[in-house]
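Human: I hope this is not a bother. Would you mind checking the protein record under this note? Thank you for your patience.
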Amino acid sequence: MVMIRTILLYIAFLSTMTPAWAAELPKALNAVNRSGEQRMLSQRIIKGYAQLGMGVQPQQARAIVEDSVARFEANLKWLEAFDATPRSSLGEMRTRWQVLRNAIKAKPTLASARQANRRGEAALIAAERMTRLLQNVLNTEASHVVNLAGRQRMLSQRLTKAYMLISWGDVSPALREELDTTMHEFSLSLDLLSARAGNSAAINAELEEQARQWNWLKTAVATEGAVNYRLIVAEASEALLLSAERLTRLYEVAGTGQARSIP
């Protein structure tokens, strides 16, 4: 009930929006971005955790886990401070997050990684639910495209996570299906974004870069089982993630109508 009341109030607020309040729209769009980023972090943490267990770039893998944990916490605090964030959805995300964070405290083994992956899946579902709520509250083209572009970040990490767990020895059919489905979803979304008529020259250039990085990652994943390719997949995954993050920021900035540089 609290969540519904919050959403209704926010919709009413947007419908009577004054020019002065229009300055808050960039913040609302950033909320879609940050909530969507939580999806990616839930998968990136498991990817790094699995890499640690297998000894694939262990120093970088540890940094990936620590960085992802810090970013997840920072986004939670930001979303908690944003008045329009649905409270019940936020509570669910925090609960799922605490369970996931506890799961990765154990020494990484295939068994603990499988358990952490289940916890990560629950956190992903909570983040997906919140992101869609925020997107639909705004209900603008910008909120939809930021969500779609931002979801590519998650798919890049979800694919690599599945690859690493399979490479480690998890032969569950569900994980294999997850890998195949994720590859299909990434390609489909990339095609949708590339066909969008309103893309700027900078966005199209980044989409071309993302396509190159995606083709490289797909090629590496196709050599599944080759130990040497775990390193290549790990590096390709991070490169694709950086491209997806830049693209999401470009769409966010375009949506707010603000001309500022993208780091």
Remarks:
- The mean pLDDT is 89.
